[in-house]
Amino acid sequence: MTGFFSRLKEGLTRTRQNLVEKVEALVTGRPKIDEELFEELEEALISADVGADTSLDLVERLRRTVKEQKISDPARIKDLLQEEVARILGNQAQPVAFDHQPTVVLIVGVNGVGKTTTIAKLAHRWKQEGRKVLLAAGDTFRAAAIDQLEIWGQRVGVEVIRHQEGSDPSAVAFDAVQAAVSRGVDVLIIDTAGRLHNKSHLMNELSKINRVLDRALPGAPHETLLVLDATTGQNAVSQARLFSEAVGLTGLVLTKLDGTAKGGVILAIAAEMQAPVKFIGIGEKMDDLRDFDPPEFARALFG
Amino acid sequence: MFEGLAEKLQNTFKKLRGKGKVSEADVAEAMREVRMALLAADVSLKVVKDFVARVKERAVGQEVLESLTPGQQVVKVVYEELVALMGGTSSKLTLSPKPPTVVMLVGLQGAGKTTTVSKLGLFLRKQGRRPLLAACDVYRPAAVKQLQVLGNQLDLPVFSMGTGISPVDIAKGAVEHAVAHGRDMVLLDTAGRLHINEELMEELKSIKSSVRPHEILLVVDAMTGQDAVNVAESFHGQLGLDGVILTKLDGDARGGAALSVKAVTGCPIKFAGMGEKPDALEQFHPDRMASRILGMGDVLTLIEKA
Ligand SMILES: Nc1nc2c(ncn2[C@@H]2O[C@H](COP(=O)(O)OP(=O)(O)OP(=O)(O)O)[C@@H](O)[C@H]2O)c(=O)[nH]1
Ligand SMILES: Nc1nc2c(ncn2[C@@H]2O[C@H](COP(=O)(O)OP(=O)(O)OP(=O)(O)O)[C@@H](O)[C@H]2O)c(=O)[nH]1
Ligand SMILES: [Mg+2]
Ligand SMILES: [Mg+2]
């Protein structure tokens, strides 16, 4: 867990306009809590992609708390903000439960967010935990997507079920479940092609994969994870909403947190959705995956 | 998802009806709406502030205060300023008088560089050019294969030297190959990288100094949020960009990143990616982008009425 914290914090402190520093700069040397402070806090949140509406709400809550509890020391603001963020994100880390044999995990998301790489990371992690992992190359559309997953499979040391490029992804999913059952696999992770959530034919294709999985193994998929790129702005809210409508989500993965983006949009999403963030990606290598820990994340954001 | 700005401004000014003339305070209220709309579209806060200040200056002038339709007038001012800010673009690539013209695509991971290289190849061939695609991404699994498959589909030649060699050497090799085989354009696909990764940014600088690209284009995902300014500033500062390509505009993102990137680099946005297929590359239109960022499909009719 310290790995998660230090690495994430390292990434976050590289940011020139770091939120932590900003908030600290806002409160230090300020004799009292005034309206200007609240406005600057709001701006700091907006700059972290939290979104104007969610930022307004958050700051409004702070205003109320400050008034109700008659708080006058600006230094307390940082803790209050951190508490609010942790509250929105929920307190518990939410691991994947392996109470099915095989547990089927479907990975979805828009183009280029890091789905295939995340699958490699999950496979690596779960294999190291002693589970038998199988991958399915369900992206039959993008050029060399199958080869990409195959290379990851070799690196991690897990098998990949594949069909030809251009074939039906549902058929790949069906075969992969059958292979997973007959080989006594613990976890099957299914890759899918990137798709924009506003394209109904592509979203219907996902629903079909979902139905085929359920037919091949009633109850499958047991986990459907939406991968979100931390660099994404407010559009991530729309992604979460529409993918959730199309396939139902059990969790989110936030990638590319090793950049300077802070993934603040996750607060806007958490404020309206049930699905918790389960993992974060902090690099391109197979061990660059961490469990998402809401209090840690809030602390990393706010120092 | 959002109520359009045009609608919001109409409502703001409707509330004022009967009060007589519009005051500066009313304009300030309208500017708050403009600010929120731009932020909801992911335009960077810093850019929003400068922009709103400029719009406000114009809006407190006679043309709005004296107007019978101040709502429309404000919309008009906002729209015109936005178009002006993103304007002055051309989709033209600067061609070298001495071929081959070398174009290098750079950007964050997953932005759409490899796909865009193949789209550009097709685009240029349609204009009678003879492009060569060059696979300089030796890091991402199957990146070379990806470009080869795309090249194959389009019947465009792809230069590659595998992954056991430095991207600088591949770029040099590609240019030599183009010269030897009469290709008049070389399109370099580079690996995705973080703007804060010094080692990989150095690599781009080395490619730049060894093959002297005529165009260095930053590929930016239209869904990018507030970080777009940091990314663009950093790539521009280290490499000196000549233009920007905005991808994934076929989605429902407002695309405020376009404004941020243009504002901080001053570089024109040369192309827009409108889909995954090779022909989904278009010339960038500042006016369409302005309507999109503001969420006002009806903007033109409104302005005509004003
Ligand atoms: N820096 C960084 N890069 C990442 C991370 N996760 C993935 N990437 C990179 O992002 C790019 C896209 O990753 P992919 O896994 O191919 O993304 P995808 O969602 O499968 O893409 P499509 O299948 O084309 O939709 C690659 O260059 C990855 O190496 C991360 O956590 N940090
Ligand atoms: N919908 C849509 N998808 C796009 C567009 N441009 C690229 N993509 C998709 O975005 C994903 C990433 O594209 P790539 O070309 O692999 O991106 P990249 O920048 O080369 O990625 P790395 O090499 O890993 O950094 C793929 O799934 C592409 O099909 C676009 O304009 N619209
Ligand atoms: Mg993929
Ligand atoms: Mg690429």
UniProtKB/TrEMBL annotation, chain A:
Its main location: membrane. GTP binds at residues 109-116, 191-195, 255-258. One of its GO terms (cellular component) is cytoplasm. Pfam families: SRP54 (PF00448), SRP54_N (PF02881). It catalyses: GTP + H2O = GDP + phosphate + H(+). It is an enzyme of class 3 (hydrolase). One of its GO terms (molecular function) is GTP binding. It is found in: Cell membrane; Cytoplasm. Residues 276-289 form the SRP54-type proteins GTP-binding domain. Its EC number is 3.6.5.4. InterPro entries: AAA+_ATPase, P-loop_NTPase, Signal_recog_particl_SRP54_hlx, SR_rcpt_FtsY, SRP/SRP_N, SRP54_GTPase_dom, SRP54_N_sf. It comes from the Bacteria. GO terms for biological process: SRP-dependent cotranslational protein targeting to membrane. Involved in targeting and insertion of nascent membrane proteins into the cytoplasmic membrane. Acts as a receptor for the complex formed by the signal recognition particle (SRP) and the ribosome-nascent chain (RNC). Belongs to the GTP-binding SRP family. FtsY subfamily. Part of the signal recognition particle protein translocation system, which is composed of SRP and FtsY. This is Signal recognition particle receptor FtsY. It comes from Heliomicrobium undosum.
